Amino acid sequence: MQKYWIAFSSIEELGSNFIQRLYHHFGDIESAYCANDLSEVDGLSKKAAEKFFKMRDKIDPDKVLQDVLNRGIKFLTYDDEKYPYMLKNISDPPSVLYYKGDLFSCNLDKTLAVVGSRKATSYAKDALAKVMNGFAGTDICIVSGLASGIDTTAHKCAIDNNLKTIGVIASGFDFVYPTANKELYEKIENGSGAVVSEYFPTFEPLPFRFPQRNRIVSGLSFGTLVAEASLKSGALITANLTLDQGRELLCIPGLITNPNTEGIYKLIKNGATLVTCADDVLEALGWEVQVQQQVLFDLPDLSDDEKLIYEALEIEEKGVDELQAFTKLSIDNLLMYLTTMELKGIIKQVDGDRYRIGL
Q1: Residues 76, 118: one domain?
Q2: Using one digit for the tens of pLDDT, what is the confidence trace for 279-321?
Q3: Any idea what the CATH number is for the domain that residue 332 is in?
Q4: What is the pTM of this model?
Q5: Domain assignment present for 255
Q6: Mean pLDDT score of the chain, rounded to an integer?
Q7: Are 210 and 353 found together in one domain?
Q8: Residue by residue, what is the 3-state secondary structure of 301-345?
Q9: Which domain covers residue 352, as residue numbers?
Q10: Lateral strand order in the sheet of 164-168
Q11: Cα Rg for the chain, rounded, in angstroms?
Q12: What DSSP designation does 144 have?
């Protein structure tokens, strides 16, 4: 029976809605695939039926199944009892969910989607890291889209905090997009969770597939946390899908001068939960977890002069001149301490000679 799900999925011109419509009409996937009369299927045009018959004649179900298995790709079909129940409950669930890694090492009862701008600011990335540090060592699973920007930060923060993560991609597994995330793909597949896709391995990452992918990101999750989003963005599409699916929508506030926060404040004004720490997420979703407080460094180990520098940066980033004025240190000593503290991960250099607290 699995080969018929894969055969349907391998026809690039077919959407999941078409496959689901036939499956529910005929009651099993083999009958749906092998049917020669689709005239009684509700809402299906004669043209669509004829197009399917024409494409089906070119497919060998046994061969396409073997093509998937030969690539080392695992999969779940819609009728599999292990198919994620949160995803099954959306209006347009994927007929096949292909995956690499260990999907069932992820706690699918505590899934949080994280989305945001591909051109995320350092502020948004740091704010997201602060929230996710509060989940360290728990059984929460982070779901995102393996794109650049906030998606990449979300997956990396999950791995750094010993959380499982699921990356939902907008192509088949023959492609890695963006190519810069190849190592991140491999980390997730090799112990940190799973990479999943609804697309047959040979399907390219075409533009229209990214918004399609977003319904799976939110559909796998109990809530979606938006870290940065302009008024016209994929993140805002995912936010609206989250609401359509009846899931919880949460937002990290950003700088009001940043165009990428316009979508955030629109969502907050419309009732999204404002998030400034991990506890806000846990309260909104009604989750009880044992949160481990992550200690990045031990302040008593800092010298008195280093503590002065740390105190100067606690509220906001500062330049070297501002730090010298605050600490009264000589420029040579100040630069020496800044270098030492940066190597320890206590502070970070940003925008030339400016520094901020490291996360």
Answers
A1: no
A2: 999 999 999 886 544 444 455 578 889 989 998 988 788 999 9
A3: 1.10.10.10
A4: 0.82
A5: yes
A6: 92
A7: no
A8: HCCHHHHHHHHHHCCCCEEHHHHHHHHCCCHHHHHHHHHHHHHCC
A9: 299-357
A10: 74-77, 96-101, 193-197, 164-168, 141-144, 111-115, 223-226, 248-251, 273-274
A11: 24
A12: E
- Token pair listed for 73: 């790709």
* Dist CA 307 CA 329 (whole Å): 12
Between the alpha carbon of residue 131 and those of residues 221, 242, 281, the distances in Å are 17, 20, 9
Instruction: Give CA–CA dist 158/358, Å, rounded.
Output: 17
* Domain-terminating residue out of 252, 285, 318: 285
Residue 291 lies in a domain: no
Query: pLDDT exceeding 70 applies to what percent of the chain?
Result: 97
- Indicate whether 108 and 95 sit together in one domain: no
Residue 299, pLDDT score: 55
User: How far is Cα 157 from Cα 165, in angstroms, rounded to an integer?
Assistant: 10
* Mean pLDDT calculated for residue range 330-341: 90
Whether the pLDDT of residue 233 is over 60: the answer is yes
Q: How far apart are CA 147 and CA 273, in angstroms?
A: 24
Residue 352: count of CB within 10 angstroms of its CB: 7
Q: Which DSSP string corresponds to 58-84?
A: T--HHHHHHHHHHTT-EEEETT-TTS-
Q: Above 50 in pLDDT, residue 259?
A: yes
Contacts of 112 (CB under 8 A, 6+ apart): 140, 141, 142, 143, 221, 222, 223, 224, 225, 281, 285
Residues 80 and 120 in one domain: no
Q: Domain tally for the chain?
A: 3
- Give the integer Cα–Cα distance in Å for 312 and 117: 30
Hey, which residues does 225 pair with through a beta bridge? Answer: 114, 250
202 pLDDT above the threshold of 50: yes
User: Quick one: pLDDT band at residue 171, thresholds 50, 70, 90?
Assistant: very high
Is there a domain that residue 22 lies in?
A: yes
pLDDT per position as a tens digit, 97-133 = 999 999 999 999 999 999 999 999 988 999 999 999 9
